Amino acid sequence: MNKKLHIKKGDTVFVNAGEDRGKTGRVLEVITDKNRAIVEGINMVSKHTKPNAQHPQGGIIKQEAPIHISNLQVVDPVKGGPTKIGRRLNDKNKLVRYAKKSGEEIK
Predict the structure, then answer these.
(1) Do residues 13 and 7 touch, judged by C-beta distance below 8 A?
(2) Tens-digit pLDDT profile for residues 25-56
(3) Which of 7, 65, 73 is nearest to 35 (CA)?
(4) Which residue range(s) make up the domain with 19?
């Protein structure tokens, strides 16, 4: 099942809850079935790894963990702050996302 979410891969998002509240980052991956997203530099966790091809030394690696999308808001392309997202038909009759704060279409 393909759900429509207000966040897509590549969006710049603002974190409005949790340990990283107030930070912004770029969405690396969206996990639709769990309503979560992985954001660059947000929700970092320590993962203990055995030595392997990528990490011959092994040890503790810092990596991003998924964060629930309800804690994320897309950053407005014009005004720069967090904004709600709406959907509307553009001049080419295609459904696009737009920022409710500025009315600007989100690419």
Answers:
(1) yes
(2) 999 999 999 999 999 999 999 999 999 998 89
(3) 7
(4) 12-49+60-99
